[in-house]
């Protein structure tokens, strides 16, 4: 491949720095004759002599001095930028913008985030908690964490080891006033608190399994919210049955008797989480560090 103009200019600066074709050729991995021919081609392109050549030394002409003084700082900046990029691979730094749901924050990010920031002190995390399914490209995010694999085909989805079970719960106060359901269909005789998905606006269905049986029900929701924390708060106030993730907070409330699980013989499908990001040819080192750390 024939060198382009930028390569010729780089060769020229090397010769000017070294004041020797032999030394510059060694630095560039070329033969002195090949380097000399490249400089001659550059002079022909520019229609001006850049170097005074003698048997003893090489000196810049007036035109060569002007060219060298203008392009050398730029080449140094380019070299420094390339070196900085290489260093990022060894010392990842910069901001990562992350979108995550509330429960994914509690289950996936929060338990490990202190260890991550300690291991990668130069990476800054800009985390936005939103139960909607964001368009991470349009909204400027780098990485998303959600409990769904239904993502744009341009996304890469990485399954995480984290998963969480769910249960139908109610407060002790509510169950003092209402007979607990004995079968899934009994929920239609109860007041329920529904969860509405922010993006699709659909209400979450309750999917029960037991042995070989599988039942999907649409709870009769008197109150609907789009946030897991709000769902928990309403259940604690005794406003109805709620389908809640069994995270540490809910498990503690169950152990204290503030919440009571109903239909304990029936299981609800566990929720699995995925880390997703745009399909890019070159993934920044800071993103790779984050993905590798949290998928483990």
Could you characterize the architecture of this molecule?
There is one protein chain. With 296 residues, this protein is an alpha/beta fold. It folds into three domains: 5-90, Winged helix-like DNA-binding domain superfamily/Winged helix DNA-binding domain (Arc Repressor Mutant, subunit A, Orthogonal Bundle), CATH 1.10.10.10; 94-161 and 272-295, D-Maltodextrin-Binding Protein, domain 2 (3-Layer(aba) Sandwich), CATH 3.40.190; 166-269, D-Maltodextrin-Binding Protein, domain 2, CATH 3.40.190. The protein contains ten helices and 15 strands. The strands form four sheets. A five-stranded mixed β-sheet has the order 4-3-5-15-6, with helices on one face. A five-stranded mixed β-sheet has the order 11-8-12-7-13. α2 packs across α3. The radius of gyration is 32 Å and the shape is rod-shaped. It starts with a helix and ends with a helix.
Beta strand %: 25-35%
- CATH class descriptor of the largest domain: Alpha Beta
Unreliable runs: none
Rounded to the nearest angstrom, the distance between the terminal CA atoms is 44 Å
Could you state the CATH homologous superfamily of the largest domain?
A: Periplasmic binding protein-like II
Radius of gyration from the alpha-carbon trace, in angstroms: 32 Å
Adjacency order of strands in the biggest sheet: 4-3-5-15-6
Total DSSP helices: 10
- Total strands: 15
What is the averaged pLDDT score?
88
| Fraction of helical residues | 25-40%
- Structural category: alpha/beta
Q: What are the SSEs and their pairings?
A:
Elements: H1 5-18, H2 21-28, H3 32-46, E1 51-53, E2 58-60, H4 62-90, E3 94-100, H5 102-109, H6 113-119, E4 123-129, E5 143-146, E6 155-164, E7 166-171, H7 172-177, E8 192-195, E9 206-210, E10 213-217, E11 221-225, H8 228-236, E12 241-245, H9 248-256, E13 259-262, E14 267-268, E15 271-278, H10 285-295
Parallel strand pairs: 3-4, 3-5, 8-11, 8-12
Antiparallel strand pairs: 1-2, 5-15, 6-15, 7-12, 7-13, 9-10, 9-14
Helix pairs in contact: 1-2, 1-3, 1-4, 2-3
């Amino acid at each position: 491949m024939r060198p382009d103009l930028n390569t010729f200019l780089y060769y020229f600066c090397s010769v000017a720095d070294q004041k020797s074709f032999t030394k510059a050729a060694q630095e560039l991995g070329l033969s002195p004759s090949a380097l000399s021919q490249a400089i001659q081609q550059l002079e022909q392109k520019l229609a001006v002599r850049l170097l005074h050549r003698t048997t003893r030394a090489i000196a810049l002409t007036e035109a060569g001095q002007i060219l060298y003084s203008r392009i050398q700082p730029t080449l140094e900046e380019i070299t420094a930028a390339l070196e900085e990029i290489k260093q990022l691979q060894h010392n990842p730094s910069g901001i990562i913008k992350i979108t995550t749901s509330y429960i994914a924050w509690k289950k996936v990010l929060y338990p490990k985030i202190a260890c991550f920031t300690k291991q990668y002190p130069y990476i800054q995390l800009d985390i936005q908690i939103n139960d909607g399914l964001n368009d991470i490209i349009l909204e400027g995010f780098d990485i998303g964490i959600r409990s769904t694999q239904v993502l744009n085909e341009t996304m890469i989805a990485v399954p995480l080891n984290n998963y969480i079970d769910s249960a139908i719960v109610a407060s002790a106060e509510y169950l003092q006033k209402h007979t607990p359901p004995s079968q899934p269909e009994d929920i239609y005789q109860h007041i329920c608190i529904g969860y509405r998905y922010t993006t699709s606006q659909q209400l979450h269905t309750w999917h029960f399994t037991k042995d070989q049986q599988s039942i999907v029900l649409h709870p009769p929701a008197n109150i609907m919210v789009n946030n897991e924390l709000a769902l928990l708060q309403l259940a604690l106030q005794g406003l109805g049955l709620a389908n809640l993730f069994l995270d540490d907070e809910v498990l503690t409330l169950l152990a204290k008797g503030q919440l009571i699980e109903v239909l304990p013989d029936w299981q609800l499908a566990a929720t699995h989480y995925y880390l997703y990001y745009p399909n890019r040819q070159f993934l920044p080192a800071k993103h790779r560090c984050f993905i590798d750390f949290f998928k483990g």
